[in-house]
Amino acid sequence: MNKPHSNKAWFLVLPVFILVAFSAIVPLMTVVNYSLQDIFDVSTRYFVGTEWYREILNDSRLQDSLVRQFIFSGSVLLIEIPLGIGVALMMPKSGKWSVISLLVLALPLLVPLNVVGTIWQIFGRADIGLFGWALNAIGIDYNYAANPIDAWLTVLLMDVWHWTSLVALLSFSGLRAIPDAYYQAASIDRASAWAVFRYIQLPKLKSVLLIGVLLRFMDSFMIYTEPFVLTGGGPGNSTTFLSQALTKMAVGQFDIGPAGAFSIIYFLIILLVSWLFYTAMTHSDNK
After folding, report:
1. Amino acid 258: pLDDT
2. What is the pLDDT, as a whole number, of residue 157?
C-alpha cells in the first residue's frame, strides 16, 4: 500500500526562500528597476528603457576598466591555482608539522580586507616599508604610488599573498581524500612522481579545483577594498577596476540609473564567465 505524500517538508524550506528573496531577489529587481529610469530625486524619475545600457556599453572608460579586470583576474588564476597546488603537494601529510602548516596557511585568510590593503601600503613604501626599501636598495626604482606598472604588480602580489592559501587548503583537502590504494598501485607499477600527479592526483583534484577557480574568479573580479586602500585606483586609472568605477558612479556622482545598468551588466559578466568555467571543467571531467 502506497503511503500518502506529504508536502510539509516544504515549510522547512520557506524560511530560506524568504531570506534569499529579501537578501538577493528583491535588491536585484530594485536595481533592474533603477537601470530603466532616469532618477533626479526621490519623487522625480522618468522611464528611459535600455538607454543606460547602451551608454554603459559604449563608455570607453568602463571598457578600459573591464579589460583591466579580465587581465587581473586571469593573472590571479594563472598564478594562484598552480602555486596553491604546489604548496599543497609540499605540505606534510600528517603529524604536528601538518597541523602547523595548516595554521600558517590560514593566517592570511583571517586578515580583514582593509587591513590587507593597509599592510601592503606600508610594506611597499620605500622609506619605511621592508619590501619597497629592499627593492630600492638593490637598484630597482620601485614606487607603487607613482609608477602604474609598480602599482599593478603590487596589487597582484598582494592578492597572491592573501588568497593563495585558500587554493592550497582546498587542494590539500582534495589530496588527503585520495585513497592509499591508488598510491600503492602506482608504487607497484614504479610510476614517477610526475605520472602520479598527472594520472592520480590531478584528476582527483578536479572537483576541488573547480570550487577554487570559481571562488577566486568571482572574488578577484569583484575586488574593491584592497586596491582602493593601497592605491585609490591610481596612479591615474591604472588600478581602477570595475567595482571602483561602479562605486564612483553610484556614490560619488549619484548616477543611479547608469549605475543600475552597470551593476546588471557586471552581474551578467560574472554569471556568464563562471558558467563557462563550470561547464568546461565538468565537461572535461565527464570525458
Report:
1. 85
2. 93
pLDDT at 85 > cutoff 90? yes
Asked if residues 182 and 212 have their Cβ atoms less than 8 Å apart, the reply is no
Domain residue ranges of the chain, discontinuous segments joined by +: 56-286
Q: What count of other Cβ atoms lies within 10 Å of the Cβ of residue 216?
A: 22
Contact (CB, 8 A) for 259 and 173: no
By the 8 A CB rule, do 169 and 106 touch? yes
Which CATH topology does 56-286 take? Answer: MetI-like fold (1.10.3720)
How large is the C-alpha radius of gyration of the chain? 24
Scanning the structure block, which residue is given the C-alpha cell 584592497?
226
Residue 64 contacts residue 241 (beta carbons within 8 Å): no
Q: Are 171 and 88 in contact (CB under 8 A)?
A: yes
Q: Which amino acid is at 42?
A: V
The answer to whether 261 and 245 have CB atoms below 8 angstroms apart is no
What is the number of other CB atoms lying within 10 angstroms of the CB of residue 264?
Answer: 19
62: left (phi over 0), alpha (psi -120 to 50) or beta: alpha
Report whether the peptide linkage leading into residue 235 is cis, meaning its omega lies within 30 degrees of zero.
yes
At residue 86 the predicted structure's pLDDT band, cuts being 50, 70 and 90, is: very high
Closest of 117, 124, 144 to residue 228, by C-alpha: 117
pLDDT tens for 120-178 read: 999 888 888 888 889 888 988 888 888 889 899 999 999 999 999 999 999 999 888 88
pTM > 0.85: no
